[in-house]
Amino acid sequence: MDSDIGQYVVDYLPYIDDEVTDLEKELAENLVQEEFSKLDKKTLNSIHKRVKQIGTYQNETPKYKSSLLTQAAGDDKFKSKIENGEGIGGIDLTMYSKVFNDDGSLNEDLYNITLNCTLMRQRSLELLQKYGKNQYLIFNDNLENSNKLLEIEIDKKRKQIDEVNQERKRICTDFKPMNDYLKDKWKDSLNNLITTSVECARLQLENELN
């Protein structure tokens, strides 16, 4: 990681290095927060378009509510009718079920309407029985195939991740001897530098005293 915060660089080899310290974690968190601060709110709040589509389907369902039920929920008049078993109004279905007039004669118009509605309802049920089940099975089959394809892709991704991790581990472990050697050389060079500096300071002091 490289940042304006002291230009501090951390090279982490996960398979041979020690655990990350709290200071390094804090530094990484500061870098993340610094990057987030550069983004505007619109970018931070943006959602992938497919996620938005899924959310739209879920949010549309509450819109389909009966206005009568909504009104009844907050109106004392409707509440009292419901408590007394009077009902809250709406379509009176009895007017469509009386195919005979008061004088006993047949109401042909209403009879034909009722008959046609019954026939259409029967036809709809027959078609639903014939094709609805098949469509349901086809949909389930397609869904199952989609799930299998997703599982295959997920399995591929997992294998790729495992391969990458194995390769990283191999690279890190192969580098460990060289890394240890370089660390030792760096420590030796640092010790030599300190020893040389001390010796130079001692000689300079002796020259000044003489």
Automatic annotation (TrEMBL):
Keywords: Coiled coil, mRNA processing, mRNA splicing, Nucleus, Spliceosome. One of its GO terms (cellular component) is Prp19 complex. Residues 140-174 form a coiled coil. GO terms for biological process: mRNA processing; RNA splicing. Pfam families: BCAS2 (PF05700). It is found in: Nucleus. Belongs to the SPF27 family. This is Unnamed protein product. It comes from Candida boidinii.
